[in-house]
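User: Structure please.
Assistant: Input sequence and predicted structure:
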Amino acid sequence: MTGTVEPDWHAIATFESNLIEQYADRGAVRSEHVVAFDPPFRFHAWLGTTSDAERDLLSADPGLYRVAQRLAAAAGLEGLLSSVIVESQETVDRDYAASWSYRLR
């Protein structure tokens, strides 16, 4: 039996950490991800803020996806980032029973 093929979890964690750091001054406090089930393991990044107002400002940044792509490439994930969605804890608490897992579905 050959080894299991899976996403590069370390690279994804590095990307998420760098994404939060990049946007911390604009309200980013967390990052989540949804990864495809099979290679090449494309993924969607979710950047979390505390408030809806922070979410709205950050999601309106026209360079957000471009910067995230650069950070993904720097982490070894070039070409794998499908999208960046910005969501707030305020919305998750209000509309998704405070569950990020529920929100990410």
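Helices lie at 9-23, 52-59, 64-74, 89-95, 100-104.
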